[in-house]
């Protein structure tokens, strides 16, 4: 796929996640398998799937026995009950990386794309983007060269 198509996919994924977070919903199980791309001739649609572990803001519905099950787990998250949008953002970095490069290993080349991905997936949540909208704004500004 061309860079233009991959970038468009990435943006559609980000808009979907922004929609959820603006409505107070954390996905809590983002993975490569939970982002679906449906193609129609030359067009495509990006869908975020599997909301079995999703949680609305201020909800106390997490069982004390719930454990993290996603393929991309935030190392800073000590308790699933404490999950916040910034924890989804950690996973978003890995998924953006995969959409844009086709690789699971994070880009570390110092490019604008690499900087965006690294900021999403920073070990310390305070060093990450705090909202998906901030990622969208930086993606809009970036040329996002992919190697």
UniProtKB/TrEMBL annotation:
GO CC annotations, alphabetized: cytoplasm
Superkingdom to which the source organism belongs: Bacteria
Any matching Pfam family: Pkinase
Membrane-spanning parts: none
UniProt keyword terms in alphabetical order: Kinase, Serine/threonine-protein kinase, Transferase
Matches recorded under PROSITE patterns: PROTEIN_KINASE_DOM, PROTEIN_KINASE_TYR
Domain Protein kinase: 1-147
GO molecular function: ATP binding; protein serine/threonine kinase activity
Class of the enzyme per the UniProt entry, highest EC level: transferase
EC numbers, comma separated: 2.7.11.1
GO terms (BP aspect): signal transduction
Name of the featured protein: Serine/threonine protein kinase
